[in-house]
Design a protein that fits this description.
29 strands, 5-stranded antiparallel β-sheet, about 325 residues, Methylamine Dehydrogenase, Chain H
């Protein structure tokens, strides 16, 4: 007999808007935190011990917040809103002071991607003012690194992922476009390395496992499209995974590379074994589209959580497959 579907261990309410983005900061902290960005422009900093909002940052003039993250090893929060700004916030000693901002010129929903290149120095990639362009700047100097624009008309940039390969000179960037294409860019050479048509519809989301050079993307259709990079950095499409209902907002791989979670337009979170894409669980709690999913970065695997944010203005937290479970 199959086990009954789990319930959330608890929920967070009071965000006041759809939950577009989630980010955990638990590793090496006394107080585990979850950051959320809402469609009403608020960033909530949830204390996971008290299960309440410890701080609320109103930072994007009421515009929808589409991305939040933290700079590792610092008390700096970074966020992007649909006010065309990426903002950096100083959270040290109880503050929430705006330190700096980067103007993107983009009114789309593409979340930026950040990569630490050396201690204290990071690259930030984001969708630019022109429909198809991706801009990369260095932080904290904000000096431009490059602009990536495809030769062919692929439509709007929908999602990006920046990473540093183990071998090779410089960073690479994966981008999903409105026409369903995936492109792999060499940032140093400002050149396209490979391209694949992963979906007939716009690529709504992608995630990439840098350890095994495998990724997966989702769109408005009833399929997930897995793919991998070969040794020549060619994108190789793999067999699609069919879903029960169409539409995926976000995909997230757990830090240990064992689980994949998808945020569904059908109000559900689906959990797969990442290695073989075996369906493991369907999490049902929300009453509207699930917009975001995130796995926690707890040092102790037994404490790991999965969070889901929904258009219903609630965050659900789940404890699943944490110790010794077969997730292959």
């Amino acid at each position: 007999m199959s086990r009954p579907a789990p319930s959330p261990i608890y929920t967070l309410r009071g965000a006041g808007g759809p939950l577009n983005t989630l980010h955990f900061s638990c590793h090496g902290r006394d107080t585990p935190l979850l950051f959320s960005g809402s469609g009403k422009g608020a960033i909530h900093m949830w204390n996971l011990n008290t299960r309440r909002a410890q701080k609320i940052v109103e930072g994007h003039s009421g515009s929808s917040v589409i991305w939040v993250s933290t700079l590792q090893g610092t008390d700096t929060l970074i966020s992007q809103g649909r006010d065309m700004q990426v903002c950096l916030w100083d959270l040290s000693e109880g503050r929430s002071a705006l330190m700096d901002s980067v103007w993107t010129g983009s009114v789309g929903f593409c979340q930026p991607s950040m990569l630490e290149t050396s201690p204290g120095t990071r690259l930030l990639a984001f969708a630019g003012q022109q429909t198809e362009e991706i801009k990369i700047v260095e932080l904290p100097s904000k000096s431009p690194v490059c602009t990536l624009v495809p030769d062919a008309k692929l439509g709007m940039v929908m999602c990006i992922k920046l990473w540093q390969p183990d071998s090779g000179p410089g960073p690479l960037l994966l981008a999903g476009y409105e026409d369903g294409s995936l492109l792999l860019w060499d940032v140093t050479q400002r050149s396209k390395l490979s391209q694949a048509k992963a979906h007939p519809e716009p690529v709504m989301c992608l995630t990439f496992d840098t350890n095994c050079l495998r990724g997966i993307s989702g769109s408005s259709e009833k399929k997930l499209s897995p793919w991998m990079l070969d040794r020549q950095n060619n994108l190789q499409l793999q067999e699609c995974v069919t879903l029960v209902n169409p539409g995926v907002s976000q995909l997230c791989i757990r830090g240990d590379g064992k689980l994949l979670a998808s945020a569904g337009w059908d109000h559900r979170v689906r959990v797969f074994g990442w290695k073989k894409m075996r369906p493991l669980a369907v999490l049902q709690y929300h009453t509207d589209m699930v917009l975001s999913v995130a796995f926690s970065d707890h040092q102790d695997p037994r404490q790991r959580l999965l969070a889901a944010g929904s258009k219903d203005q609630r965050v659900s937290l789940w404890s699943i497959y944490n110790e010794g479970a077969d997730t292959s």
